[in-house]
Write a structure and sequence with these properties.
alpha/beta, 5 strands, five-stranded parallel β-sheet
Length: 256
């Protein structure tokens, strides 16, 4: 997954196509009913946004790592403590789950197993890294969070967004106050990754159609939650994208 690096890549927080199952989690939309793969609209009950929690989302090659570094420097210049982290990962256990999920040498998980492993890593990440940092007054910058599960496992794999929302409510209970969506055309983003990743991970190896569904789900979520999302054109030069992200964050902070 772009911007998250290889399974062993450290972060500030850590030093150290699937079979379809014919059950409700994959059911197609009936005539006259909403597609269950579409994102729930608005804030979910039992999921609390935090004003010092910022997530970066986007498809492959969007440049999230560059933006995260720019935001971290902007916050540090103001004297704030910053915890920069990533998903899947962010704790020793969650990083091990990351390796199971992304390393193509491992058995490919089913869509359901992939989702549950993502949430297992996320639950540990929130408990051990994110919640303690927020509790002591730090800012948390996270390269991907639960929106990625809606986009990749929901939009990409076709799992029911209502099931993802239930997992979010029961095992996470936390939402970024601000989500920066770095939006880029799939073909252009993947062209960027070809020059960066010598060995693509298991998700990066998916077909373009998969990533088109991922992008469409991200954009639908941003349209449904304009108060939380800021969409940035990531087709620009990396420095311009980073500068726009910092500008959007500062404007959001002044309004918050």
């Amino acid at each position: 997954m772009s911007g998250t690096g290889s399974p062993g890549k450290p972060t500030d927080a850590v030093r150290g196509e699937a079979a379809q199952v014919p059950d409700a989690r994959h059911r197609p939309a009936a005539a006259g009913h909403p597609d269950p793969r579409q994102p729930p609209i608005g804030q979910r009950p039992g999921v609390t946004p935090h004003p010092r929690f910022v997530s970066l989302e986007g498809g492959e090659g969007a440049g999230k790592t560059t933006v995260l570094n720019a935001l971290r420097e902007a916050l540090r210049e103001g004297g704030d403590e910053v915890v920069a982290t990533r998903e899947p990962g962010g704790t020793p256990l969650a990083e091990r789950i990351r390796g199971l999920l992304l390393d193509p040498a491992h058995e490919a998980p089913s869509a359901e197993a992939e989702l549950l492993l993502m949430f297992a890593a996320r639950a540990q990440h929130v408990h051990e890294t994110i919640a303690p940092a927020l509790a002591r007054g730090a800012w948390v910058l996270c390269d991907r969070f639960t929106d990625s599960s809606y986009a990749y496992q929901g939009g990409g794999r076709g799992l029911d967004a209502a099931w993802i929302a239930e997992l979010e409510r029961r095992v996470v209970g936390l939402q970024p106050g601000l989500t920066l969506l770095l939006d880029i055309d799939v073909a252009r983003g993947r062209e960027r990754t070809r020059g960066r990743d010598l060995v693509p991970d298991r998700i990066e190896s998916e077909r373009d159609e998969f990533f088109e569904r991922v992008r469409a789900t991200y954009r639908a979520r941003a349209a449904a939650e304009p108060g939380r999302f800021r969409v940035i054109d990531a087709s620009q030069a990396a420095a311009e994208v980073a500068a726009e992200a910092v500008r959007q964050w500062r404007a959001w902070r002044e309004q918050a």
